[in-house]
Amino acid sequence: MSKPRLLNREEDSLPLDRELLVRMHDLMVKARVLEERLIQMYKQGHGYFWIGGPGEEAFNVPLGLLMKKGQGPAYDYLHAHYRQSATMLALGEEPIGAMRQMKSTASDPYSGGRNFAGHFSKRAWNVTPVSSPIEVQYVMAPGTALAQKRHGGEGISIVTGGDAGTAEGDFASCLVWSSRPGNELPLLIIVTNNKWGISTPAETQHGETHVADRGKAFNIRTKTIDGNDPINSYQELREAMEYVRKERKPFLLEANVSRLYGHSSASGANLVGNEQDCLTQFEARLEKHGLLSRKEMDELRNRYTEDMAAMARQVIQEPLPGPETIWNNIYAERK
Known about the structure:
By secondary structure, the chain is an alpha/beta fold. 38% of the residues lie in helices and 10% in strands. It has nine helices and seven strands.
């Protein structure tokens, strides 16, 4: 008897229901259009700096959809980095907030106009403030995970960062503190690997085959996945989250993703032609299986483009923070 032929991704049936797949596509398009609008705002002088996540939507959208959203230790904490806009939109955030932060308006919901692009925070959803120093979130995340271990329930902490930043000691500290025998923490440790550290290629820096391999020395369950496939990302994230929720132990998940517009505005924020585009690939698959037509997908993108252009026009007219607010929301004497 001959062995059954394994189906490749183009031949298989779609293992998630249509409603979820269409929702994921909608959010991926919304996130891509938002990032392109933020880049445009920067290039038009309506922002000082851009950094974001175009190319990571296939992973970041499922992450947001699967999180247990709420406030306090019974819900999930997110210790994010600056490429997480698609996760925020999947959680239910409005895109205008990211534009306000780009413009540094007083109405910026994350920092009141005092931080730059991609530095999200939302106490009501346990989204801890994104920090500019690279990868410090990895050493902060065990703190909320420890509180959740003591609290009980199913809430977990989730931390995300890039592959280059795993060279920082904070990442090693995260592995140590989350895996102590008898004191393991409910922490999902995520590395989104785009194969670059600003302008340095990963293959010249990493001795390990996969970043996730580093978790094995700590007896942490690990996996490396294709983060450019939203269906695979959804399934693997769901499995990893279920493990952390049930076992109350850490899981190290490495997702291979793309970086479509370079590192940031410091490198030009121009489209990179030789990167995989997760959105283009997903749309081809949805069209092949008859879930959405090319016309429907184009209309969706055009609608989001028009909506966000209108938001941007509104935002650029909004006031910047006044000098009297410089001491607000910091640990310093009010002047």
